[in-house]
Amino acid sequence: MQEGDAGEDHCSHTKGCKKMNDLSLTAATHDVLVVGAGPVGLTLANDLRRRGIRCRLIDSAQEAGAATKAVGIQAKTLELLAKMGVAHTAIERGLKTSLFSIYSDGKRLVRIDFREHLQESPYPYALMLPQHETEQVLTEHLQSQGGAIEWQRELISVTQDEQGVEAGLRHPDGKEERVRVGWLVGCDGAHSTVRHLLGLNFAGTTSELSLAVGNVRLTWDLPSDELFAFLHQGNFIGYFPLADGRHRVVIAYEPDKAPTGEVTLQEIQQVIDACGPAGARASEPAELTRFHVNQRRAEHYARGRIFLAGDAAHIHSPIGAQGMNTGMQDALNLGWKLALMVRGQASARLLESYEAEREQVGEDLLRGTELAMRVALTRNPLLLALRNALAPIFFSALPASAHRLAETLSEISIAYPHSPITVDQRDKKGTLHAGDRAPNALVRTREGAEPQPLFEIFTSERSILLVLTAQQEAAAVERQWGEIVALLSGGYQEMIEAYLVTEKATSGLDQETRQVLHDFTGELHQRYEAEQGGLVLIRPDGYIGFWGQFGATETLHGYVKALFVPGGEAQL
Ligand SMILES: Cc1cc2nc3c(=O)[nH]c(=O)nc-3n(C[C@H](O)[C@H](O)[C@H](O)COP(=O)(O)OP(=O)(O)OC[C@H]3O[C@@H](n4cnc5c(N)ncnc54)[C@H](O)[C@@H]3O)c2cc1C
Predict the structure, then answer these.
(1) Which of 16, 47, 63, 288 has the most crowded Cβ, counting Cβ within 10 A?
(2) How far apart are the CA of 330 and the centre of ligand 1, in A?
(3) 368 alpha carbon to ligand 1 midpoint, in Å?
(4) Do 149 and 132 meet the contact criterion of CB atoms below 8 Å apart?
(5) Which CATH superfamily, name and number, covers 423-563?
């Protein structure tokens, strides 16, 4: 079901799918309309397309912009982009930064080494790549899959019924096109037309903070591949290195202390002189912008067959470099669920979990960035003294707090323990829970093969079921695997791929009939805290959806039945 199919007047995926057949009567040529070709819309279009979904991507702008916006891709986003096959291109074009330090009044408060804290992620760094280049990478990938952005198509109206969505698109010559699709996703930014048309509130605060940003060349003694933030008496400046040797500087002011008018090199130099580092000189200013930060979140991320993702759903301070990343992860949370729904292989419950999971992430992000800004910009002498005295002690005496900060910034810590589609059936739970990001580990696909990271083996778009066998007896393993094979052959193979994970050497096991991973060091069992073995279902977006004891096939069956529809019968 690719875009080349456009023009068909029936859905090829709708065998046995009555509701989708109804939709096809209105001549829908695409399953999903993605509105907005910023980083979020591009991510979603790429993900849907690789899953074979007919998807149309429109944008009201004339062409791609090059505005000064996001500059960093975080580790968790890179892990997801790797599955889509675009991480390596982004990495080639960007700059890896593993170290992040915060200074106040010339004294270092904290230094985070991502390599130390993200040891099992293949990407223990933040990748510095300007947003327009990230969009370029995503656009090229979309084109390589035969997709394209339709520029100068503005969404102006939208209605929906039980079977689909009807959208009005304005063309540059003023003509209006009516489009019928199964689903619509508004990735149309902070001023989202989709959100307005749905009448959804965008509650929060306006102009809490004023920012000045720009790119400069710095002459200083500090390393040119590290991230720095310098604070001084209510002033903040962040230095983000770029691959071309320059730096993106981000200056934050309290609203009543902010200069007005154009940002100038002189203004940037004044803040550098005030905050540090001492003696640093800025030159060659470019892309200077001033703007106010709003902190807002849409009251809902979904209404029927219409969804919001990215800035259309949440906006906040860019200080923690999270906005674009969170939006791209919204898209990748939604993509696999929507694709299954389009194919009639998902229950309504699976799709509804998008809103439950991502609203919570948006909420936490707003709270976190608000607090971080208050701490960074405080002028209160008592709070300043406390912050400057306690932060170094706190972070050095409690390594767990530095670890937590690293995991938060890299978005590795995002988890869905309370999601309606997370189930943890184990009697004894450890530190890793269902809903957490699935950890990586080195395994062998056969005896004597080169060890490979788990993440590199799982490139399919399906969920992965790990049958962790630990020290279970051969007969028990045989029985467990037989039950899993029977379960999946009940129509779930298109959604779930199972692997038998053994600690013992794999010789003697029949590799023709089962997919075996050899956990030759026991690292995988250890990371998954599976001394007794277990059943772990990893979702396509890399989170643990189900966790059961070894032998809990019945409970797993209940979980799978609640979320997936064998044979493609839609349940909306
Ligand atoms: C100065 C600055 C620095 C930032 N730094 C970071 C950072 O370091 N890290 C980070 O993660 N985030 C950062 N952000 C946030 C990041 O830029 C945004 O979160 C990101 O752009 C959101 O992407 P999006 O695709 O949701 O929306 P957008 O990028 O706004 O894209 C929306 C698209 O929708 C189109 N559109 C709008 N209305 C319609 C319509 N009616 N019909 C059709 N198309 C429409 C627009 O033309 C646009 O192309 C920063 C933001 C700013 C301003």
Answers:
(1) 47
(2) 13
(3) 20
(4) no
(5) Glutaredoxin (3.40.30.10)
